[in-house]
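Weekly structure sync, notes
Attendees: PL (lead), two postdocs, one rotation student
Agenda item 3: pending single-chain targets
PL asked that the sequence for the first pending target be pasted directly into the notes so everyone works from the same version. It is reproduced below exactly as submitted, 387 residues in total.
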Amino acid sequence: MSIRDAAEARYPSYVERLGRLVNIDSGSRDLAGLREVATQVAAWCTDAGLSTHLVPVHDAAVTPLGDAVVARVRGAGTRRILLAGHLDTVFAAGTAAARPFRIDGTRATGPGVCDDKGGVLAGLCAVETLLDLGRTGFGELILVATPDEEIGSIGSRALLGRLAADADVALCLECARENGDLVSARKGVADVELVLRGRAAHAGIEPERGANAALAAARLTIALQELNGRWPSVTVNVGVLQAGQRANVVADQARLVVDLRADRVGAFDEALAAVEALSRRSFVDGVTVELAVHAPTPPWERSAATQRLVDLAGKVGAAIGVEVRDAATGGCADANLFAAAGVAVLDGLGPVGGNDHSSDEWLDLGSVPERVALLAGLVDAAAHDEM
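Predicted structure, written out during the meeting:
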């Protein structure tokens, strides 16, 4: 049986599993839903013959974030290959009931159908396909699915770092772009929170006694937005601006949250330093600024190792009739962390999908067998390739 035929044989099971997962709410920090999907994925991994464990994940304050699934299978070779996806979505509890899994022709919809439940299940299906065919030339194949990627992998970074340290190759299961492209580079991102503290006063009687944090926040917002264009491909976006409580009070507090992205490590560091420098400027006398950088993730710059994986994917694709192209994207993912750890990495290896993080999110079910075959074939090729 060919690898594509074996993947095709797994397709009905894939669709049934996808419907079950999508119909479980598993937004980041939704512990009940995340534990339910983790338990289900772990059970499928165990049924497939993998040694499977649930690993509790916590944030810095030791607040539970859910469980990561880590499933392993030994092979006859020497190379360790890591397949990585995530279980959490961006959707609130109740979304699955409001718009459950649905199939219209070859298009599936529902919360997380593409990002990343469809990708995680493609990874498991690829492992099963290889085991069905007896293609176990890898030393060890590890599938990990984490519960906190959509909030910056704030709790699972240590786990991912340990897995990366032992891996020769990381193949990431975010879905392919809408046009089918794999992902070979990603921008880095940092969420920068700036809390401004001023001094309250009566806005009508003695406004001069106040220090207006709202005014300082407005001026700081303009200065931050003006950083755009200073470096090619760097974006700085003030996405949250909050200030004050009442119109007749000089605002004594304000808060900004900034999304900063860059595709080069040097530009990323320089832009972050520029934001920090602006936080030290006095925009209104008496207003101070406290800055915190949350879950900074460095850019994943395309490397020779990634190019080698793209080339291998191209050879596998040619053999099974799948055209392989790759592209850089502005979105950040766990692939950035693997690249920073020095592992050869390629992303976008799930099925084709689009409109992530929206009510129109979709997955092309027609792409599933060929993309599972491509992923399984790439694992097999990487297991034998001396990169």
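Discussion points:
- The domain at 188-297 is CATH 3.30.70.360 (Alpha-Beta Plaits).
- The CA atoms of residues 217 and 254 lie 6 Å apart.
Action: rotation student to compare against the earlier draft before next sync.
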